[in-house]
Amino acid sequence: MKLLKDILYGTRIQETTGSTHVAIEDVAFDSRKVKAFSLFIAVPGTQVDGHDYIEEALAKGAIAIVAERIPEAKKEGITYIRVHDTGASLGPIAAAYFDHPSAGMKVIAVTGTNGKTTTVSLLYQLFRSMGRKTGMLSTVENRILDQTIPATHTTPDALQMQRLFRDMADAGCRYVFMEASSHSIHQHRLAGTHLTGAVFTNITHEHLDYHGDFNGYIQAKKGLFDTLNSDAFALYNQDDPHGMDMIHDTKARIVDYALTSMADYRGRIVENQLNGLHLHVSGHDVYSRLIGGFNAYNLIAVYAVTQELGMETVEVLTHLSMLKPPAGRFEQVAASEGVTAVVDYAHTPDALDNVLKTIDTFRTKDTQVITVVGCGGNRDRTKRPVMARVAAKWSDRVFLTSDNPRNEHPDEIIEEMRRGLDPIDARKCIAIADRREAIRMAAQLAQSGDIVLVAGKGHETYQEIKGVRHEFDDRVELIKAFNPA
């Protein structure tokens, strides 16, 4: 229980009707979750507007309303608070309701088109292996110490996030590593969170359906660094052409990392093999089970974060070598003898290009690279032809298939992918809308020495079709294809 006046402290209030000296038992922005003596925050969303559900929230027992538009007919005994932006107010209100849990922990947010999940997962693994009490918010899963909590979004909503932070703080967590998607930054989901640092991995064309254009996407990512305080650090990838954009207006202490540029934390790939990487980072040798240049960047970022947090270098280097890639990130699965089979979450042109370029370094003159790839429905359509073009560039045979078609027809998505192919590349590609069948055909085609990549879904265990999630796991399907009953 909290007094309304206490949880509104710091919120920019434009108008108040009623008393703020009322006890609040819960906070909600979904009217279906309102309980007696709740504070209901009416947030306009992309699908529905919380202002349309104020009466429903009151009927369920809400005792106070925060809104951008106050109803003309006000109920007696109800407190109405008008603010300019309820979406931006939700985080600080939630943080205050849960006693500002992030303030007592070191919270690091990682943003970028690619590498967020891997970087966050590696940091969590590393700090847990070093015995530190750690939490994690990621696309794959959320963790409080060793307890797993399923993840539904890259970044939880502001209320859920503060509740998770409260649980982490109560469990004794000292460190929290979290992904910050462009959507979440734009929607102010991190508002009210005290960040110790932020990391920028890279940026390529993605989510243009939401942000409108590439500049809008860049500005959304940059928003994370704009909110950092002077006591935080801003770590960015110097090799990315938009790295400097991220930290242009930040108040935080700026540090950078790179593979090809001069940087505070500079790395060099000594050896890159299917059994792992050998790196030279800031004067130290680092051996890792992870594979590929893209993971070299992730590992340098991880090392840099540990040093910014004051971790002992020798201890960090010892534990770095034991880290495993997160599920569905360049994950090798059992295949026929002599065949290498890989599942990867690569669902952007840049991520697919990175994975296939890495695979290319391992092939011999007799190796066939066989790629299965699709594009999600109801998402950025501009990347579809580029995805097909990238797959064909690095592969000997490509199966164009469905990903999560959602409410689009898979054949129409595949047709848009095919538009990126020239006549020569088009001859490499076969369209099979049934993803299970495409994986089976790729496995059948593979001979000893070949490499099969199934890209796009990675850790996901479902396929979304017409609003229904069907059980589907690329890793399971690939194993079945190579080992039929």
Task: Summarize the SSE layout with pairings.
Elements: E1 2-3, H1 4-7, E2 13-17, E3 23-24, E4 26-28, E5 38-41, H2 54-59, E6 64-67, E7 79-83, H3 86-97, E8 106-111, H4 116-129, E9 134-137, E10 141-144, E11 147-150, H5 158-170, E12 175-179, H6 182-186, E13 197-200, H7 208-211, H8 214-226, E14 233-237, H9 243-246, E15 253-258, E16 265-273, E17 276-281, E18 284-288, H10 293-308, H11 313-320, E19 331-333, E20 340-344, H12 349-362, E21 369-375, H13 384-394, E22 397-402, H14 410-418, H15 423-426, E23 429-431, H16 435-445, E24 451-455, E25 462-465, E26 468-471, H17 474-482
Structural features, described:
The protein is of the alpha/beta class and 485 residues long. The protein folds into three domains: 2-97, MurE/MurF, N-terminal domain (Udp-n-acetylmuramoylalanyl-d-glutamate--2,6- Diaminopimelate Ligase, Chain: A, domain 1); 101-320, Mur-like, catalytic domain (UDP-N-acetylmuramoyl-L-alanine:D-glutamate ligase, 3-Layer(aba) Sandwich); 331-482, Mur ligase, C-terminal domain (Protein-Tyrosine Phosphatase, Chain A, Alpha-Beta Complex). 32% of the residues lie in helices and 25% in strands. It is built from 17 helices and 26 strands. The strands form five sheets. The chain has an eleven-stranded mixed beta sheet, sandwiched between helices. It has a six-stranded mixed beta sheet with strand order 19-20-24-21-22-23, sandwiched between helices. Strands 2-7-6-5-4 form a five-stranded mixed beta sheet. It is globular. The mean pLDDT is 94.
